[in-house]
């Protein structure tokens, strides 16, 4: 018997929290190598890109009513991308690689305490978007009687969240904050996405048909734009700066996209099989 959506969402929330805490703790044991970081980033970015296109976009289109579905979806996708671009511009928070090679390639300098606040705020707003997407995707999956609703979005967040938490604690360590402050920030950041996901799910349920119709469709389209921006902000700079490991990075990217598409096929077959009974 499949788990109920609230139980499933609770399991997702716990998994995201633990993954984020684990990622934040990694900075205590030194920075990852440049090559390993870029391979992981390419895989995760490919997976997030696939989740946005194969999972969030179809669900969003299905939930937007009226004759101008594609125009409405395009507008909210653009809003999602624009909001993330503004956050990236203002807070400059999407830095995961702290190796010496990255500093030489990109010219990363130290992060002062004022800059660290901007990074933390930017990542906090960014993780709010992820939490809302997770809660909305589980709600949509529940309405459509899908199997393990929101699994793809949860996996995308699970893979990406450790990198973000690693960024916060790594910058705090570089700025000279003590271990207790780094642990508190790590735990606080890890809680944001689960709390927002649960609030998003419960809020949609309390608002009833209004939230589960046009509002949730627009929210998913917004999440598509945000996820596209998140994935491409990891991928595009490395295309310009990397002159080595091209084959490995392309393989990692392809594997991430392929995994997202495989999950889409499994979900589609499960839903169609459920509908045949």
Structural notes for this entry:
By secondary structure, the protein is mostly helical. Helix 1 packs antiparallel against helix 7 (about 180-205) and helix 5 packs across helix 8 (about 210-240). Helices cover about 85% and strands about 0% of the residues. It has helices at about 5-25, 35-65, 70-90, 100-105, 115-145, 150-175, 180-205, 210-240, 245-275. The chain has nine helices and no strands.
Q: Which radius of gyration do the C-alpha atoms yield?
A: 19 Å
Unreliable runs, pLDDT <50, ≥5 residues?
A: 106-110
Estimate the global geometry from the Cα principal axes.
globular
Question: What's the average pLDDT?
Answer: 78
Which class do the helix and strand fractions yield?
mainly alpha
Helical percentage: over 70%
Percent of residues in β-strands: under 5%
Order of helices and strands: HHHHHHHHH
Number of helices: 9
Strand elements, count: 0
Main sheet summary = none
From the N-terminal CA to the C-terminal CA, the straight-line distance is 15 Å
């Amino acid at each position: 018997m499949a788990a109920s959506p609230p139980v499933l969402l609770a399991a997702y929330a716990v998994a995201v929290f633990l993954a984020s805490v684990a990622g934040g703790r990694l900075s205590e044991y030194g920075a990852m190598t440049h090559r390993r970081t870029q391979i992981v980033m390419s895989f995760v970015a490919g997976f997030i890109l696939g989740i946005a296109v194969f999972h969030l976009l179809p669900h969003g289109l299905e939930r937007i009513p009226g004759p101008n579905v594609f125009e409405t979806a395009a507008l909210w996708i653009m809003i999602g991308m624009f909001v993330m671009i503004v956050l990236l511009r203002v807070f400059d928070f999407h830095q995961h690689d702290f190796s010496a090679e990255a500093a030489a390639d990109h010219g990363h300098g130290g992060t002062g305490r004022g800059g660290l606040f901007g990074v933390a705020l930017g990542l906090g707003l960014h993780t709010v978007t992820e939490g809302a997407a997770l809660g909305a995707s589980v709600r949509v999956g529940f309405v459509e009687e899908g199997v393990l609703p929101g699994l793809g979005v949860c996996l995308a967040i699970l893979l990406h969240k450790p990198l973000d938490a690693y960024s916060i604690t790594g910058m705090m360590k570089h700025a000279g904050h003590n271990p207790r402050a780094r642990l508190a920030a790590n735990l606080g950041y890890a809680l944001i996405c689960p709390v927002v996901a649960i609030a998003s799910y419960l809020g949609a349920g309390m608002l009833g048909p209004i939230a589960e119709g046009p509002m949730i469709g627009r929210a998913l389209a917004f999440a598509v734009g945000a996820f596209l921006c998140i994935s491409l902000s990891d991928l595009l700079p490395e295309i310009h700066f990397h002159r080595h490991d091209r084959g490995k990075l392309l393989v990692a990217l392809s594997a991430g996209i392929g995994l997202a598409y495989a999950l889409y096929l499994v979900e589609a077959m499960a839903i169609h099989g459920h509908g045949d009974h």
